[in-house]
Amino acid sequence: MAKIDYNCLYFGLELTEAMNNYFKYVIGMVTAFASHGDSWCSAGMHRSIWKCYQALAVRNGTYLGLLDRSSAAAAMRRVLKIFVLIVATSVVVQYKALHTLLPGTRWLYFLMYNIYPVTLSYMRHVFHLLHITLMCANLRQLHVKLEHLRRTVDDSLKVENITLNPRKHEAAVLTTLDRLEDCRSIYTELWHANEGINELFGFSQAFNVACSFVQIAFDLYWVRAMWISGDPDLDLQMLLSVPTPVVVGFLMHTTRKYHLTVESVKQAVLEMPYMHDERMVQLCGYFLGQMQRFRFRLTARNIFDFDNTLLPKFVFVIVTYMIIFIEINR
């Protein structure tokens, strides 16, 4: 189809404009194939993540990992709301475009060609967002367990227990050690599930996130070009630029909540009372050392991390891309 309508797609465009459209389509298709290939090759890893949650649920008498039915349903509702909002935004934009562009025009063909790769890219982002949300919810429950343990220790931590009732104090220490060790074991299992998420989405999301920011750069290039030329379709182009930042914004907001939850778990261990016992000091130190060695993070095969440093990097890429194409056009 692209070969048949090649002249319709690119005839009459300047070199930089044709390159811009061509790169956007090619990068989108490469990302789509990368997502399909990564999904196929990582099917076993996907199953292992759910098995890890299932094992935790069986051990703790919960529904999904550390989540009971209501907590799991709440997490799924949050993802569903985001999904519906993304779909609604995309449908409104596409409906407006299809009813504005004239049949047989270059831009209508180009819009139709890009529906598949762009839709697949958005769905991959939402699927990644689902896993991040579930992991964040499980980490939040781990934080709740640690906070409950800390409050229990604070209530029972009295000097009289050591001087007047050492046996009661020893029993309290042993119980606390067992519960803290259980939390440490849960941390280990969740870390393995988190690494599975990185393995499942790492390669394809490296392409996908880069593709999303490149698409934003492509759209901004056309917004600038239409604004300079006084094109009457500038409003439509600005509208077409909306969905991708919305999807990326939801993804980055979810990763920010994830990192805050990880920090809260670490803080809960730091604030754990030692109960005047050397064993508590050693176990808390070992737990903190484990957190330092096996950190929770979201990474795309170590190409980049999904954290606060990601946006500045890609803003730099977008600005650099636009400067290069503007200079070539001159």
UniProtKB/TrEMBL annotation:
List where the protein spans the membrane: 79-102, 310-328
Q: Which GO terms describe its biological process?
A: sensory perception of taste; signal transduction
Q: Which Pfam family name is an example for this entry?
A: 7tm_7
Q: Which organism is it from?
A: Anopheles atroparvus
Q: Which residues form the signal peptide?
A: none
- Give the record's membrane topology: Multi-pass membrane protein
Task: Name the chain's protein.
Answer: Gustatory receptor
Q: Which GO terms describe its cellular component?
A: plasma membrane
List UniProt keywords, sorted A-Z: Cell membrane, Membrane, Receptor, Transducer, Transmembrane, Transmembrane helix
Does the record carry rRNA-binding as a key word? no
Family the entry assigns: Belongs to the insect chemoreceptor superfamily. Gustatory receptor (GR) family.
Q: Does the keyword Amino-acid biosynthesis apply?
A: no
Coiled coil feature spans: none
Record's function text: Gustatory receptor which mediates acceptance or avoidance behavior, depending on its substrates.
Q: What subcellular compartments does it reside in?
A: Cell membrane
Record's InterPro entries?
7TM_chemorcpt
